[in-house]
Design goal:
The protein has helices spanning 2-8, 19-26, 82-99, 142-152, 217-223, 241-248, 261-273, 288-298, 322-334, 354-367; strands at residues 13-17, 31-32, 37-39, 47-51, 57-63, 70-74, 106-111, 120-125, 128-133, 157-162, 180-184, 191-195, 198-202, 231-235, 253-257, 282-284, 302-307, 314-315, 318-319, 337-347, 373-378, 397-402. It is an alpha/beta fold. Helix 3 (82-99) crosses helix 4 and helix 9 (322-334) crosses helix 10 (354-367).
Length: 403
């Protein structure tokens, strides 16, 4: 009742944080963890002033009650209003207009904390927008986000999805804000999205995993000149975008492996819409480790082996754990990579640093008795910028090794 009365009077609540949090907030870090809050119990979704233990104003945040206590939107105590949101949305859009290649119609329009909008991501798919929120506590910002999109980008439809962090164990299905189409109209079916001259059909009802990971676009661009004449094994292939890129780039053989038969059906569809005959290529709905072991036993090798496991998965080989399983995966891949062949290893787990990732992969190569050269260290596409004050924003690590 006190909080409700305070809001009715136009006042806002506040929280006080410890010195550790104050140090990080002063550097621009946008998260406040529950253990860092020393006073204040605002309701989730409430706009609050953040103060240090001395009482000094450190910023303005939106409170939550999950694995985060609050997300900080500004470094002063002013309100999180339409002017603030509109300014940051506009700056984010201006960057994408600059860095997204001409003719590419699927990209990240707003990248959360890295664009000054913590917990908010907006993906653009041809003429549609998907707004992904990390928590229902941010739903109060939706009207302003939708209005800006409708005025500035004119989408045919806008979808909302929840994007909970794996560390958040709340059930978002009970949130008062319904997900799905929230403005405009739905497409008749899948949407054709272009990445350069490659077509990928995406499925908006499956958002946020619509069938194309745009953060890998820069990696596909870098690899474009190196497929010709190569045999390719694409593990954890999902909808086969890397496989299509390899086949279009002149690969002689392409094998796509994924546990999901449904994903591979979409992969074969993506081959067809790019004028590639899927019957010329191989699609295996199997566990990646079992496939690698079979190729090891038969002595079959490949010139390019792509390793892009999901951050979390459960399969016949158990629950995937990066720290535990990357050495095993790298070793198994090395055993089926031809001399002079390449292993393309991708990790999207932010908690694994680039140095740790390289160490895990190197352990695997050592187990397999293979020497390796690091040819390139790549990262996410420029429409997925990473703020220098938010280390978690630099999550994607892609290393290319020659064995």
């Amino acid at each position: 009742m006190v909080e409700r009365a305070r809001r009715a009077r136009g006042e806002s609540g506040e929280i006080r944080v410890n010195g550790y949090s104050e140090k990080w907030l002063s550097k621009g870090f946008p998260w406040i963890y529950p253990k860092e809050v020393v006073a204040g119990t605002p309701a989730p979704g409430e706009s609050v002033v953040v103060r240090g233990e001395s009482g000094a104003v450190l910023g303005r945040a939106i409170a939550d009650h999950g694995w985060l206590a609050a997300r900080v939107f500004r470094s002063d105590g002013e309100e999180i209003d339409e002017d603030l949101l509109g300014g940051r949305l506009g700056r984010a859009a201006a960057l994408r207009d600059l860095v997204v290649p001409a003719g590419t119609t699927g990209y990240r329009l707003v990248n959360g904390e890295n664009d000054g909008l913590p917990g908010i991501r907006i993906d653009w798919w041809s003429h549609y927008a998907v707004v992904a929120l990390d928590s229902p506590s941010l739903a109060g910002l939706l009207p302003a986000l939708v209005e800006w999109l409708q005025v500035e980008r004119e989408p045919r439809g806008i979808y909302l999805v929840w994007r909970p962090d794996p560390r958040d164990d709340r059930d978002f299905s009970t949130a008062s804000q319904a997900t799905g189409l929230i403005a405009g109209h739905a497409p008749a079916g899948d949407i054709a999205v272009l990445e350069g001259d490659t077509r990928v059909d995406v499925r908006l009802p499956d958002a946020p995993d619509v069938g194309l990971y745009c953060d890998m676009r820069a990696v596909r661009t870098w690899l474009a000149d190196y497929w010709g004449g190569a045999s390719v094994l694409n593990l954890f292939a999902f909808t086969g975008v890397f496989s299509v890129a390899a086949a279009r780039g002149g690969a002689t053989d392409v094998v796509s492996v994924d546990l999901s038969a449904a994903a591979l059906e979409r992969a074969t569809h993506n081959f067809r819409v790019n004028n590639l005959d899927p019957d010329r290529y191989e699609f295996l709905a199997e566990d990646a480790f079992k496939v690698l072991d079979r190729y090891r036993r038969t002595g079959e090798g490949f010139d390019r082996v792509i390793l892009d496991p999901p951050a979390f998965s459960r399969g016949p080989s158990g629950i995937w754990s990066g720290q535990k399983d990357w050495p095993r995966l790298a070793a198994a891949a090395a055993r089926v990579t031809n001399a002079g062949g390449w292993v393309i290893a991708a990790c999207n787990q932010g908690e694994i640093s680039p140095r740790e990732f390289r160490g895990l992969v190197a352990q695997g190569f050592e187990r397999a008795g293979r020497s390796a050269q690091l040819l390139a260290s790549l990262g996410q596409s420029p429409d997925f910028p990473a703020s220098v004050t938010f280390p978690e924003g630099r999550y994607l690590k892609v290393d290319v090794y020659r064995l």
